[in-house]
Design goal:
Elements lengths: L2 H16 L6 H12 L2 H4 L4 E10 L6 E8 L3 E8 L2 E8 L2 E5 L4 E4 L1 H12 L4 H6 L4 E5 L3 E8 L2 E8 L5 E10 L2 E15 L2 E11 L2 E13 L8
Antiparallel strand pairs: 1-2, 1-13, 2-3, 3-4, 4-5, 5-6, 7-8, 8-9, 9-10, 10-11, 11-12, 12-13
Length: 227
Amino acid sequence: MNRVLKIFLTIAFIVSTLNAGEPTREQLITNMIRAYGGEKNIKQLNSYMQVWDVETKTNDGNGTDNRRVDMPYFLRTELIYPDKTETRVLIKDYGTKDFGTRKILAQGPMLDAMKLQLMRLFNPLVLRDNLKEIRLFIKKKYYLLSLKRGSITAEYFVSKKSFLVNKVIGRLKMGSRNMEFLTLYDDYKPVLGVMVNHKEIKYAGDVQTAVMRLKAMRFLKTPKRHR
């Protein structure tokens, strides 16, 4: 055995030893499915409605977020504040924003931001369906699953202890600027057998924008299609 081959085998052994205790992408998502309540229960997260109390951090106008989700392409959010209402609808690559008196077509970074809002809600079964597009990074406290779609990326920070998602970072480009949206997930509780976070803390860049608390949730039948 020549010297170069010996060095190569030694390096390969060291790398395999260091990674021996770490899961593959498939193993990690399998662990997530168990932690969230099993495949049968998680399927409930493919279609649901939620009502959130919104404590805004950028002004004094607290409000309500009525959310409808149908995985993996549909998201409707109705934001109700004392002085305004805004409805956002995303159907795959088509998005609109309705401000009550006017409705606009979402394009560019606005549409990308809406897509990231849906991607951050992807449950373990949806992540498994997108396994080929996902990269796994090992951090000190987290497993990081990175899913890139075109110019946008969602990063899921999975706890090494619970295998639940503790935070998601969404990244997009706005001209020459890179934008980052962070959501922290807390207060997990079972709802009909599936683990659901009951608190979200949201940031845009370094600015905390809102703290949201789950008020009500209802699972629905998954529609065949929206459009």
